[in-house]
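[Automated response] Your request has been received and processed.

Submitted sequence:
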Amino acid sequence: MALVLERDSSFASETIPALRYVQSSVKRSNSKFSKILEGFVVKRLNEALENSRLLCTMALDHRYAYIDKWITPKSWTLIELDLDNYVKEEPYSVSVSPRSSQDDDDIDDFLHSSLTSNESKTDKIQSELLRYKALLDTNRPNFENPLDFWRGNQQNFPKLARIAAELLGSPASSSASERLFSRCTDTLRQTKRNRAKLETLNEMLTIKELCRIENEEEGNSDETGDFNGESDEESSDEELEPEFDDAEINAQYPTDDVMPLLEAELPTTVTSDDDL
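Generated structure:
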């Protein structure tokens, strides 16, 4: 589970399903520590189920949304109500004032009154949720990345897509950030780059990350061209350490035929009676 949640492509919506998997695995174990471990897992799971943001993130992940086994004893209906807190006003939206009875005096206004939308923010997101749930019930997509799903359906569910972009931007753990900090530290340790400005450092890390993603998409996992290109004098101490021990060195370079070094003889000083 730890390896899954520590990936760069992990999502916060995977936390509760991963805990469910650990719980089922511990129950099948015959170890004497399984009961103790199960207690810790259940406690962590209950804490996660009380996190409304985490549950809303699962609701917008097509892999887990509206599947009761993941959130029991919670209800998807209550989670839908929590999604209203993430609805934001659309930019440059024109507010429509409610119609009054005086507007109906004109026959044209009366006949075209049905064209005026009186839907509130809650009504609009509820209508999108109904269509979103119907889509998952009839033909649940098989995208591995939930962002790919919303990228292709942002026209059908504009409000939900904006909320999904915000909630699904959180990874399942901080491992990805810690790896980024490590790469930043490695860059600053180089004598030719430790005086770079913050903007330059950010651009360097961004370009390197984009190159890595491009290599992964092309199926080339080996990063042949390292962006940093460390020279010999910029190499870290760990890279300068030998990869073999003294026994291997002695086996490769035997010292049996080598004459031992003679100790330097101290010069003899002659003293005369006058010196005494």
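Summary generated for your ticket: DSSP finds 14 helices and no strands in the chain. Confidence is low (pLDDT under 50) at residues 92-96, 221-246, 257-266.
If you did not submit this request, please reply to this message.
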